[in-house]
Design a protein that fits this description.
By secondary structure, the chain is of the alpha/beta class. It is built from five helices and seven strands; from the N terminus they run βαββαββαββαα.
């Protein structure tokens, strides 16, 4: 788990968030309120044409997350169900505390039958 994950507050502008995404070379950023509570996510295309608006106005609210005390099996289940490569981790007050990546728990997910072998999903998609 990456602690702390990169995030922006709801009042950061779309232009500032875009610049940070480019600098970090990431596709999206987690959005937190002033207390650090996870409230959304902003991705590459969100806010196009609205660079001066706050990300809170253009973000996707209510991201899927896991509680810090939840077990890894629950994380694997959520990642599988929602086809996520990353899963935000929140603390007791819903504050953002980390970011769990699929690669962090890939062996467990495979052992539980949650994920197909590396590349299998892509081969199936091409065959369809």
């Amino acid at each position: 788990m990456r602690e702390p994950p990169e995030s922006v507050t709801t009042i950061v502008t779309v232009a500032e968030a875009r610049a940070l995404r480019c600098r970090l070379r990431v596709d999206h950023l987690l959005v937190v309120d002033r207390q650090g509570v996870l409230v959304g996510m902003v991705a590459g295309g969100e806010g196009d044409g609205a660079v001066d608006r706050p990300v809170g106005a253009v973000m996707s609210p209510g991201p899927v997350f896991i509680d810090y005390d939840d077990d890894v099996e629950e994380a694997a289940a959520l990642m599988s169900e929602y086809d996520l490569d990353e899963l935000p981790v929140v603390g007791a007050r819903a504050e953002l505390v980390g970011l769990l990546r699929r690669t962090d728990i890939l062996p467990l997910g495979r052992a539980l039958g949650r994920w197909e072998a590396e590349g299998e999903r892509e081969r199936q998609a091409r065959a369809a």
